[in-house]
Amino acid sequence: MSNAQIVMRADTGAARPHTGEVERKLGALELAWGNGFVRKTVIIIFLGIVWEAYGRYLDNPLLFPTLSDTLVTLADRVADGTLPLRAWTSLKVLLMGYVSGVVIAAVLTILAINTRIGTDFLETMTAMFNPLPAIALLPLALIWFGLGNGSLVFILIHSVLWAVALNTHSGFLGVSQTLRMVGRNYGLKGLSYVFKILVPAAFPSILTGLKIGWAFAWRTLIAAELVFGVSSGQGGLGWFIFENRNLLDIPSVFAGLLTVIIIGLTVENLIFRTIERRTIRKWGLQN
Amino acid sequence: MSALLDVSGVTLRYKTPSVLVTATDRVSFQVNQSDRFVLLGPSGCGKSTLLKAVGGYMSPSEGKIRIKGREVTEPGADRMMVFQEFDQLLPWKTVLENVMFPLLVARKLPRKEAEDRARAYIEKVNLTRAIESYPHTLSGGMKQRVAIARGMAMEPDILLMDEPFAALDALTRRTCQDELLQLWEDTKFTVMFVTHSIAEAIKIGNRILLLSPHPGRVKAEVNDVDRVSPTDGSAGQLEKHIHDLLFADEAVH
To answer: Which of A175, B55, B88, B103 could lock B83 by a disulfide, CB 3.0 to 4.6 Å apart?
Structure first.
């Protein structure tokens, strides 16, 4: 009887010493360059240098103040309490509008995922209102709700609602058939099915919606404040920018704009990044 | 003794946008306690559809499906499913949480008890070292073993497995089959297993239901499959016999 031959090789196994380099520590520069935060800081520093250089070359603080002027004004305005107060006024309204928009979006999407007429309603409404700039509703809002936070919250809801609802709904639709069947296998129904299966499974899309909604809300608010400015004696950041332009205090205008940018960057990098890192990255839903 | 699962005269139809497909036509069979019941047939014989109907995901247009005398009307945790797809684990939960989750939401066990039971079953499928890992860090074979642990930890009336090893590589598939048999030796659970591989059916099952395609009808039932042995060639003979049965119609043409 003929059998296949197995010839054992002696030179394998742990006893064999390593011939080449398997692991090598990266240098400090390589490590730093691998960090996204460091790379982005380098970009921001570069832009700052370009700004400063151009401002000095132009030498016209009325048109384009230098970065150093802007930073000094920013520090002054923060120190005398104007900017923090204005920023807080804006943020309060913003949060009211944002939270209400997200809650309404959640209700609409849950209706849409559970009933066919809800789906049709959401699809029609998003198709109609998503392309409509929120700021275009401001004149109407002023008539309906008067000069005040009511109007602002109304247009903020409009700017947040459709972006969040659209993303959440498409996220729900993208949840795999297998996961849906698993959820139903556990006997989950209605709201507990939505919150225990659909929401976490669609979380990448939901988070994108929340981020887009946040950006939309922020720019809508600043634009709206520029248009009708002040209510009850206390304006927000948009009004601060508008007011200082009228006073021809251009470094303050720049300081106001910079504050808008800084708040935007902070929310994006601190809040949304942290949520991303703790959820979808940890779960392997995003690389 | 009355059967654990009684499928009598079940016709299953589903709609595609343009046609109404009859997946199975008046299929009847019974599964007893501790059976390893295999549905075997070529693609298009409705075996997966039949399993989904037992799972409660679709209702028969004719006939009845009863489990322990209760009629199946909707999905439920008394019939745990193990799917073919690797994405059946919840990606936002660790291995331990994935196994615990149905115990908490469907069985309403207290947390401590659920955790103990989940740990015990994860131990059974040899995944204790990966217990805190998230599913995306696991290999395909490990994911399927977690899904099996999750199904078994619920101690359901019947475990429904829809080609769970079909997407695995050949070596991992053999390991998983051996492990499944070992688990069955330990706990003698009842399992209904869908496959299109004759060899797998013979290895896993003690009873095999042969289905013919378009529409799915019962062609034959093979009992006492566990009496054949791969060492004396009887398994090979049975495999050839089943193969001839399944492809007899084609030979005529």
So the answer is: B88
**Taking all residues of chain B, what is their mean pLDDT, rounded to a whole number?**
83
pLDDT digits (tens, 9 = 90+) for A232-252: 557 788 888 888 888 888 888
- Containing structural domain, residue B186: 5-25+37-194+203-212
Put simply, the answer to whether A185 touches B80 (Cβ < 8 Å) is yes
What interface predicted TM-score (ipTM) does this complex get? 0.84
CATH number of residue B47's parent domain:
3.40.50.300
- With respect to residue A121, please indicate whether it lies within any of the assigned structural domains: yes
Asked whether residue B220 is domain-assigned, the answer is no
Residue A185 is nearest to which of B55, B87, B91, comparing CB atoms? B55
Inter-chain Cβ pairs, chain A and chain B, closer than 8 A:
63
Look up the domain containing A267 and give its range: 65-281
Does residue B160 contact residue B222 with C-beta atoms inside 8 Å?
Answer: no
CB contact under 8 A, A182 and B88: yes
A-chain residues near B55 (CB < 8 A)? 181, 185
Q: Is residue A44 part of a domain?
A: no
pLDDT tier at A100, thresholds 50, 70, 90: very high
Mind listing the pLDDT tens digit for each residue in A72-95? Answer: 988 988 888 888 888 888 888 899
Q: Is residue A176 part of a domain?
A: yes
Residue in chain B closest to A203 (alpha carbons) equals B92
Cα torsion B187, B190, B196, B197 to 10°: value is: 30
DSSP helix/strand/coil, B222: strand
Which pLDDT band, with edges at 50, 70 and 90, does B253 fall under? very low
DSSP secondary structure of A88-156: HHHHHHHHHHHHHHHHHHHHHHHHHHH-HHHHHHHHHHHHHHTTS-GGGGHHHHHHHH-SSHHHHHHHH
Chain A, 39 to 98: residues with Cβ < 8 Å from chain B are none
Sign of the torsion formed by the C-alpha atoms of B49, B52, B57 and B62: positive
Considering only CB atoms, B83 lies closest to which of A178, A279, A282, namely: A178
pLDDT in tens, A33-57: 877 788 888 998 999 999 999 989 9
Q: Looking at beta carbons, which residues of chain A come within 8 Å of B76?
A: 185, 187
Residue A185 belongs to a domain with what CATH number? 1.10.3720.10
Q: Which two tokens stand for residue B105?
A: 């939401």
Kindly state whether residue B21 falls inside one of the protein's structural domains: yes
Asked if A186 reaches chain B (Cβ–Cβ under 8 Å), the answer is: yes
Number of folded domains in chain A?
1
